[in-house]
Amino acid sequence: MGVLRRTWAWIDDVTGLSASLGPILTHLVPRAQKTRWLYVFGSATLAVFIVQVGTGIALSSAYVTGSGQAYDSLLFISRSRVGSVIRGIHYFGASAMIVLIGIHAIRTYLMASYKHPRQVNWLTGAALLMFTILMAFTGQLLRWDQGGFWTAVVAAEQAGKTPFIGHWLGHFLLAGDTAGGATLSRFFAAHVFFIPAFIFAFLGFHLYLVLHNGISEPPKAGRPVDPRTYRTWYHAMLKKDGVPFWPDAAWRDLFFAMLIVILVVMLGIFVGAPALGKPPDPTIIQASPRPDWYFLWYFALLSMIPKWMENFVIVGGPAVFGLFLILLPFFGGKGERSPLRRPWSILIVAFIVTIIGYYWHMGVLAPWSPRMDAPPLPPAVVGVTTGSVADGARVFHQKGCEYCHLVSGYGGIRGPDLSDAGDRMTRAEIATRIFSGAQNMPSYTGNMSPQDLTVLLDFLESRHLKPPAATKRFPPR
Ligand code: HEC
Hints:
Elements: H1 2-15, H2 17-25, E1 28-29, H3 41-60, H4 70-79, H5 81-110, H6 119-142, H7 146-159, H8 166-174, H9 181-213, H10 230-241, E2 243-244, H11 245-270, H12 293-304, H13 307-331, H14 343-365, H15 379-382, H16 388-398, H17 401-404, H18 421-424, H19 427-436, H20 450-461
Antiparallel strand pairs: 1-2
Helix pairs in contact: 3-5, 3-11, 4-5, 5-6, 5-11, 6-9, 6-13, 7-8, 12-14, 16-20
Heme C (HEC) is lined by residues 370, 399-401, 403-405, 414-416, 421, 425, 430, 433-434, 438-442, 444, 456.
């Protein structure tokens, strides 16, 4: 112990740490009895960001930029135990950052922490939110599998719709006219150099401002912010009722941040990053590129809105949201902070969360996109393992019918459920549909042998939902 104490005394003597950091650690913060746990999301975001920096540097040491090698280098990383765990942590860390910064933003918005004198806290926070989203976007691209590749293409197409600068912006994103090696270098540089540099700078400023202005006290209905008197009131309140940041308030930040980091590491170890998609191939126009989950809702939104609204949503959506974030502290810099006195703030959050939730749900179901990964129907569903019905079930899978049609819960949902095809349609009707196709169903004329058609029809005719008479509901009502 003596050695430790003397070492620390020496370090403190030559660095002056306790004299400079001590007051920061023990500065007074509002007591915030009831809402104390709502204040932990910002520091947890920071903790996960540090994890991202660490795992990101580790990943970059084995990652090769280059359209020919990026995918292979990721395969290499994923094949080693350590590499795949680091990739998993980085993936779940990204997810955690998005969730945490989202909650942090909602919390500060609902509590109106953006009001005087914390306007610039809010603005730097909004910038950090934007940078975090950009990191998530550029990161999923670096996988350079089919999903990443097409995300880049779709993003450039969208950017191209921006008025006036669209063409230039699309060109800038792809670093050329088409997605290729130069695109990947550009996204890599953005993901590991530019955006992180901005994050560090804004984060430093954000934290400095938190110290400079003090953490916001919990809002109380009927206690509006008056810019002329707020600071005097705030300092008097702290003097009377404040608690030192360390340890009275900081232990919660520390505890929650540790919990999140442990969770992220556990997920990285036991669940791992999503498997890589197929290698990118510009000649395959992938019908349904799927972005990572945090962008899925936006993707679904774009897939589902009518065509004429598309440009408006792509350009107008982010513009309105960005303007709202920037103007909010200027137009709402004083007055009531309590969400009870700002009911529209609750409505706005509820609206945004509902929209995102709804489209996210739709994105997960992806009713518009065929499910290319639908497994062959299991024997339990088919009912038999040999004979024409079983052969038909195989054709149903091989010819891609199952990508779009459900049978007893297996398959895609782009077309109607065919679990009861035998109850609803005659053999001739089904055959007509297979040959003529439909609005969203390809025609199979010339693409199906007579034998295949026969067994396929046998299979579909055998699909019944109506239970045989003997097994009707018992006891009868
Ligand atoms: C790309 C997706 C897709 C594929 C692949 C596909 N279908 Fe369809 N199918 C649809 C859609 C969408 C409809 C509904 C069309 C409509 O009625 O407007 C449909 C309708 C049908 C219907 C009529 C169902 C009803 O309830 O009216 C049958 C039967 C059918 N498909 C059978 C097949 C068979 C058999 C195959 C494979 C040989 C197949 N489909 C492949 C999308 C698909």
